[in-house]
Amino acid sequence: MKTAVTSDHALVEFGRERCRGAAVAGESCRSVRTEPRDSSGPSLVWRVHPARDRVGAACFAAAVVTAMAWLSAAMMQSVWWGALAVVVLFVALRRFFLPSQFRIDAEGITARNSLSRQRYHWSQIFRFSCDRRGGYLSTRSRSSVLDIFRGMHLLFGEDRETVVAQIRERLNSEAGR
């Protein structure tokens, strides 16, 4: 999925869904979504679904969940233990199996999936690190074992450069205040 910020609208998102005959910047698209610009500046919104994007890994994960469910049911001699294993593993892997949506705006960043919503204001974020698939925004200035409880893990999707540039720009402007 490609995401771009334009001068006329805060967001133009090119996705996999069917487009209603719209074309932006001379490029054909399958889906376009725009949000009107507000006084605080443009927003950047993107959606990531790792299981759909990485079908081989999704098949492997589903096979592992199935094997663990079967193993649990066989060892405990109850189908209910197998069902419990499926539920626990699915909840643990929900960010992989279910889509997540991220939003960057002037006030902060929001991560939303089907089971949770997380929001941080730019003033709360002290550290940003990233790799090729995702990044981590930390509310702590130094790395710690508590980082997994005190921050936000991001998935960039296909437009990594735009997302990283927006985050760095927002953090730099917040540091300048």
Structure, explained:
It is built from 5 helices and 11 strands, in the order βββββααααββββββα. By secondary structure, the chain is an alpha+beta fold. The chain folds into 2 domains: 2-49 and 99-175, PH-domain like (Roll); 53-95. A 4-stranded antiparallel sheet has the order 5-6-7-8, with helices on one face. A 3-stranded antiparallel sheet has the order 9-10-11, with helices on one face. Mean pLDDT is 78; it is low at 1-39.
Summarize the structure.
By secondary structure, the protein is of the alpha+beta class.
List the main descriptive attributes of the protein structure presented here.
single chain, 177 residues, alpha+beta, PH-domain like, 4-stranded antiparallel beta sheet, 3-stranded antiparallel beta sheet, 34% helix, disordered N terminus
